[in-house]
Specification:
By secondary structure, the protein is an all-beta fold. Helix content is about 0%, strand content about 50%. It has no helices and 16 strands.
Length: about 180
């Protein structure tokens, strides 16, 4: 009772199965599915509580909506996964892969953009797999890749000696056309 004159000693906590649940200072921590009895003892008086721990099965994963779709060459970003059940008891180990490690690598969720191109990043947890296409942007100083839409040119640099002075002339030549000068 609240008006007791008895001296109250320290509370001793214990669990019947420390592989299922532990207890410290009255706080119970669930570890795996199963049952355990939590016991509190004060001045030779005991109270018990039956605890049943159930597994929370993972039902899916996704990328956060904030996951970038483009990264500049030379940059590093950290990717993450959202678990459908935040407090799942299943293994949350994420396996990361890149569709082309010459364009971008990903280790422990850290993506390193190596060269311009498009790469598909895959994250897998248990039987769940998700993918994200990420464009690696060329830097301004980097030559963009030649595509079927590009008109390739060759730059010719000529040194001319005019009146004892040197002049540099740059001629742009479209591939497949001759220069007659």
């Amino acid at each position: 009772p609240l008006n007791t004159t008895d001296t109250i000693g320290a509370t001793t906590w214990s669990t019947s199965d420390a592989t299922v649940a532990t207890v410290a200072g009255g706080v119970v921590t669930a570890l795996k599915a199963g049952e355990a009895t939590i016991t509190a003892t004060i001045n030779s008086k005991t109270a018990t509580c039956e605890v049943t721990v159930t597994e929370i099965e993972l039902t899916g994963i996704s990328f956060p909506v904030s996951t970038p779709t483009a990264v500049d060459v030379g940059k590093t970003i950290t990717l993450s996964v959202v678990f459908a059940e935040i407090d799942t008891t299943d293994d949350k180990t994420i396996t990361w892969t890149s569709s082309d490690e010459t364009i971008a690598t990903v280790v422990n969720g850290v993506l390193v953009a190596k060269k311009a191109g498009v790469v598909t990043i895959t994250a897998s947890v248990l039987d769940f797999t998700i993918t994200k296409e990420i464009t690696i942007n060329a830097l301004d100083s980097e030559t963009p890749p030649v595509t079927s839409d590009s008109t390739p040119y060759i730059l010719l640099i000529c040194l001319l000696a005019i009146s004892g002075l040197l002049a540099t002339v740059i001629i742009r030549k479209k591939l497949g056309h001759s220069i007659n000068r």
